[in-house]
Known about the structure:
Main location: other
Order of helices and strands: HEEEHHEEEEEEEHE
CATH architecture: 2-Layer Sandwich
Low-confidence stretches: 252-261
Keywords: Acetylation, Cell projection, Cilium, Cytoplasm, Flagellum, Lipid transport, Lipid-binding, Membrane, Phosphoprotein, Transport
CATH class: Alpha Beta
Number of domains: 1
CATH topology: Alpha-D-Glucose-1,6-Bisphosphate, Chain A, domain 4
Pfam families: START
Subcellular location: Cell projection, Cilium, Flagellum; Cytoplasm; Membrane
Mean pLDDT: 88
Largest sheet: 11 strands, mixed
Oligomer: single chain
GO molecular function: lipid binding
Structural class: alpha+beta
Radius of gyration: 18 Å
Amino acid sequence: MPVQVPDDSDFSSFKEQCLSADGWTSCYSKGGVTVWCREEESRTVQKLKMRIVCKDVPAETLYDVLHDTSYRRKWDTNMIDTYDIGRLTVNADVGYYSWKCPSPLKNRDFVTMRSWLPLGNDFLIINYSVKHPQHPPKKDYVRAVSLLTGYLIQSNGANCSTLYYLTQVDPRGSLPKWVVNRVSQFVAPKAMRKIYKASLKYPDWKKKHNPTLKPWMFPEQNTLPCISALELTLQRADSLENIDESGVSEERTHHSDDEDT
């Protein structure tokens, strides 16, 4: 299927999903983070939505943190690797991301097309999985599929913001129920708090690391090679290997990250 760069209607639809309560069930609310779950037709594909209010963090700072790949290596302890592949337009690119799963589950990776849009007091970033001919699935990873993932940042004044994260991902594996539960009850809330903490530290870090370099805001700074949407195709889950990990028990796993909540 052909790949299309999101337009204004796609961003509007994403924002509406973030703000709407219809069809969502609250499955976690603690320490300033709320997580909602939504049952989809396919039981393997969980749809999650999260929200956290970030005091002392302007919306613009959150937006920078979520874009800044160099800084992500500092705070995203679950990440194995990430890199940009090429740019499609001034506000769309293609990138790679891989992350650790608790052993003995296999690690996952993505190739996604990402697009972003500052809109008044709102900032949006959305992505979905694509196939790039030079970045096929890797031997030691399970190639997961993002059907729709993204962030909505809303300004609450000069020094406060609200972050929404919505994700619908097919992990390409028959995962046990405890893994799905752990994502909504532990992994997702912890990730939101980690972004918040990283955002508090970002201004000081950025002062010492290319403070004027923000290609997501200044397209003339973007040095990525240009690629065409014609080089890409939509990544369909059914074209990927499906790994059966449903028999993995929680007792056999050890988690890659610390267990604080």
